[in-house]
Amino acid sequence: MAMQAVQDHKVSVALACRTFSISETCYRYGRKLGSENEDIADWLLRLTTARKAWGFGLCFLYLRNIKGFGWNHKRVYRIYRDLELNLRIKPRKRLVRERPEPLAVPEQPNQTWSMDFMADQLSDGRSFRTLNVIDDFNREGLGIEVDFSLPAERVVRSLNRIIEWRGKPGIIRVDNGPEYISGTLLAWAEKRNIIIAHIQPGKPQQNAYIERYNRTVRHEWLGCFMFDTITEVQDHATRWLWTYNNDRPNMAIGGITPRQKLKMAA
Question: What's the confidence (pLDDT) of residue 89?
Answer without folding.
Answer: 60
